[in-house]
Amino acid sequence: MTINLSKGQQVSLTKSGGGELGVVRMGLGWKSAPRKGFLARLTARDIDLDASAVLFAGQEPQDVVFFQHLTSDDGSVQHTGDNRVGGAGEGGDDESIVVDLRRVPAHVDQIVFTVNSFTGQTFEEVEAAFCRLVDESNGQELARYTLTGGGRHTAQIMAKVQRSGAGWQMTAIGAAADGRTFQDLMPAVAQHL
User: Fold this and answer.
1) What is the DSSP letter of 180?
2) Residue 124 phi/psi, 5° resolution?
3) InterPro entries attached here (predicted)?
4) How far is 11 from 25, CA to CA, in rounded Å?
5) Radius of gyration of the chain from its Cα atoms, rounded to whole angstroms
6) Distance between CA atoms of 67 and 28, rounded to whole angstroms?
7) Bridge partners, residue 108, by sequence
8) Looking at residues 79-101, what average pLDDT do you find?
9) Is the dihedral of CA 96, 61, 102, 72 positive or negative?
10) For residue range 18-50, what is the model confidence (pLDDT) as tens digits?
11) Which residues contact 33 (CB under 8 A, 6 or more apart)?
12) How far apart are CA 173 and CA 56, in angstroms?
């Protein structure tokens, strides 16, 4: 059963039958919004959204996984590859980041997921955008957060997973930001640690 998250909502990452999740995938999907007018359609560029995961120990970034660094130094977080055009809106993941929660180093206490428009278009030009959390052991979608509202921003602080006792929990953040890369978003990310 999928939980549709609203901004700021938290969900514990435990299996419905008990036990902790081992490997989760944060998926990102989107498509370009339809262009209005003949000239707008002729001059339209593909939209390249990029998913990133920043690993933190307290307030200090320890590592980052993104299209130019596909695997964390410890191997616990892996980006599946860069998609430069998005999908057709069928609901599949256009970019994914897989996290083996069992292998995340003990000093890393939270992982923040971001999305940014590398090509600089605003979210007004994107539709059907979402992020979702999937249990990789069985493919079950655990939580989905719809990146709604469009807006003149070029990035979102999507969600984070953080240690909670012996397990993990996910928080949907959904905060608008501006920037073409994860580096541009670090001041905005810091507000959600």
Assistant:
1) S
2) -65, -25
3) Stress/Tellurium_Resist (IPR051324), TerD (IPR003325)
4) 15
5) 16
6) 13
7) none
8) 72
9) positive
10) 567 789 898 888 776 555 555 544 445 566 778
11) 124, 125, 126, 127, 150
12) 16
Report the predicted TM-score, pTM, of the whole model to 2 decimal places: 0.82
Compute φ and ψ for 129, nearest 5 degrees.
-90, 140
Dmax over Cα atoms in the chain, in whole Å? 56
- Decide if 29 contacts 129 (C-beta within 8 A): yes
C-alpha to C-alpha distance for 80 and 192, rounded to whole angstroms: 25
| Percent of residues, the chain, with pLDDT higher than 90 | 32
For the segment 129-186, what is each residue's pLDDT rounded down to a tens digit?
777 888 898 888 877 777 655 678 888 888 888 998 878 888 878 788 999 889 999 9
Q: For residue 193, how many other CB atoms are within 10 A of its CB?
A: 15
Residue 182 main-chain phi, psi, to 5 deg: -60, -30
How far is the CA of 4 from the CAs of 7, 28, 86, 147, in angstroms?
A: 10, 15, 22, 11
Amino acid at 146: T
Q: What are phi and psi of 190, to 5 degrees?
A: -55, -30
Query: Which structure tokens are listed for 104?
Result: 């995340």
pLDDT of residue 91: 57
